[in-house]
């Protein structure tokens, strides 16, 4: 079993600069202010006014920080992020990285061949495009119960960028599958410390065995996104989180909202970012107690995204 550092060492790289982990506040560990993909036509998150309203609504519920997992090429609008955090008082962390191949044109991926790790490192250390905004994490993605060649390429580049910078790697797990394959590749073959890996979407499958094995390995487990009818999320998620906490892995847990479409925003009638604190938080407090839920939203998030930057 890998044991992560116990303190809140390092700094969290926000769009306004590096901050102490304890200053991140109550954190939505996985969400999106801006996002566009050919997989979601007509549902792009590209309205800066709506993004500001969403952040303000999250702030009104006690939120202090949001980690945007939108990676390279999917409409991050990095230059718009600093004004949003200044206007709302919510810290924002931006991402570099690459999603599944289906979210890109073949031509755009060809352009990145041979230089993907270099792009990641540049966006972590110099800035995203001409915005000057530095990313604070690397986002990559697995496939459904497998890692295809694209996933292995992107994760290899992510590992190289991690070794160069120390940045954490956040992983989209397709319908919560493939977690152990991801850890075998990133941590086993590529040498990334497990406590620098954040596994996303563990809420979408109630596989307690896989969740526990991943926690024992030392990774962070993110339960992120409100319920859909075909996902075992809200109604089973408290049991999964409680089982991990009872087994001694409360320090490895993260919570997020994962708003990926305009219709899902609270300002457009959806659950949006505030749902995490308005509905998920009190439900988990019943299962886990307020003290642990507070630590998951604050200390755990600060520890997961804090880095001794190289």
UniProtKB/TrEMBL annotation:
Modified residues (N6-carboxylysine): 139
Pfam families registered for this protein in UniProt: PTE (PF02126)
SUPFAM superfamilies: Metallo-dependent hydrolases (SSF51556)
Keywords, ordered alphabetically: Hydrolase, Metal-binding
Entry-linked InterPro entries: Metal_Hydrolase (IPR032466), Phosphotriesterase (IPR001559)
Family to which the UniProt record says this protein belongs: Belongs to the metallo-dependent hydrolases superfamily. Phosphotriesterase family.
Protein name, per record: Phosphotriesterase
